[in-house]
Amino acid sequence: MKIGVLGTGMVGRAIASRLVALGHEVKMGSRTPDNENAAEWVAANGARASQGTFADAAAFGELVFNCTSGDASLVVLRAAGAENLTGKALVDVANTLDFSQGRPPSLLVTTKESLAEQIQSAFPEARVVKTLNTMNCEVMVDPSLVPGRHNVFVSGNDESAKSEVKGLLQSFGWPGEDILDLGDITTARGPELYIPLWLRLYGTVGSGHFNIALVH
Amino acid sequence: MKIGVLGTGMVGRAIASRLVALGHEVKMGSRTPDNENAAEWVAANGARASQGTFADAAAFGELVFNCTSGDASLVVLRAAGAENLTGKALVDVANTLDFSQGRPPSLLVTTKESLAEQIQSAFPEARVVKTLNTMNCEVMVDPSLVPGRHNVFVSGNDESAKSEVKGLLQSFGWPGEDILDLGDITTARGPELYIPLWLRLYGTVGSGHFNIALVH
Questions:
Q1: Which of A149, B50, B150, B188 has the CB geometry, 3.0–4.6 Å to B211, for a possible disulfide?
Q2: Which residue of chain A comes nearest to B187, CA vs CA?
Q3: Which residues of A touch B117 (CB under 8 A)?
Q4: Residue A206 DSSP class
Q5: pTM of the model
Q6: pLDDT tens for residues B14-64?
């Protein structure tokens, strides 16, 4: 399918490359149509890869990934244009990290509302699905980098958008039974507030190639 | 050893009972010296179990557990008395849940400071260790209720207090390699902010007998 990826950082490039490898046509969006990261990515990824503005990428995609940093996401999505997101699954993988006090960063979201909920409120016609924000971007698109069973979470109000996203996750290599549907978009608070623990586990493991598994 | 347990709810009773079963002398503290929950617990747990005020329990313990609800913990600890906590390992297992908007609850802590840090600041002479707040109280004291390997986290500034607490956790049944030391007391933000995810996983699993495992 045609997919728009907003953001040219590590996360955007990892997801966009994986999508192209799986046969999708992907347009990477950024503030300017000639962003250098995006140009490098296009050069490396062949005919199914293209670039443009946030609005170009959102208009192009039948499904859109938000891979921008969380503190910029609402501004980016406004630049992408509500009309280019209407009716589409909008996959939000962003975290709102605050590096202003040094490392490890803290969070800019409150414990009362997630970024995903803010996005869903600001773009009521988009079908927002929060997922993949709880791990390193290499693990997102290749869960076999972490041995054994471990989980990815999905939150969203729209069942058909969640089904579409779960299908993509399975194509990334996530076994269906390891994809945990937490419920509606308010449940995104869980995975978003998990990030401070992820950051400390990163400190313990010393690499991003880890994840958590639900055991019961 | 002699241990004070502050709080007479499910968590306090589960921990206090396990400690008595392991041979410790335990005094359960509450607002009043004749609390009914505590009296029932004393009656069920024999000669090594006793009860008193928060101050009685804190003065009695060579080590003290905070098993009160997080929104009351600072008030309870002031009632227990800074002088009764000085130099002691103070094991904080509390979560600051806000049920005012219904279920599932949200958190009263911010993303910038944990309850454990607030306690350590308010009681600088106590050696605060955050642990066990990331699971159901039955799993806290009997990790074999969840099959296979899974983790408990420890945060604190004082290495000897953490060693003492890790020893207690091992006596509860936690294998040493499954006890993850996240670092100083600021790392308690991770396990405290994990609770919203725990609450959603509880919704998914349908029982409290689960936990997460670090996989890498």
A1: B150
A2: A200
A3: none
A4: S
A5: 0.96
A6: 999 999 999 999 999 999 999 999 999 999 999 999 999 999 999 999 999
Neighboring chain B residues of A147 at a CB cutoff of 8 Å: 215-216
Facing A111 at nearest CB: one of B106, B147, B150: B106
Pairs of CB atoms within 8 A across A/B? 122
Contacts of B187 in chain A (CB under 8 A): 200, 203
Nearest Cβ partner for A182 among B111, B181, B200: B200
Q: For residues A207 and B209, what is the distance between their CA atoms, to the nearest angstrom?
A: 29
Q: Is B209 in Cβ contact with A216 (below 8 Å)?
A: yes
3-state secondary structure chain B: CEEEEECCCHHHHHHHHHHHHCCCEEEEEECCCCCHHHHHHHHHHHHHEEEEEHHHHHHHCCEEEECCCHHHHHHHHHHHCHHHCCCCEEEECCCCEECCCCCCCEECCCCCCCHHHHHHHHCCCCEEEEECCCCCHHHHHCHHHCCCCCCEEEEECCHHHHHHHHHHHHHHCCCHHHEEEEECHHHHHHHHHCHHHHHHHHHHHCCCCCEEEEEC
Average pLDDT over residues A134-143: 98
* Cβ–Cβ below 8 Å for A205 and B194: no
Amino acid at site A178? D
Given the candidates 3.30.470.20, 3.30.1360.70, 3.40.50.720, 3.40.250.10, the CATH classification of the domain at A2-205 is: 3.40.50.720
Where exactly are the structural domains of chain B?
2-205
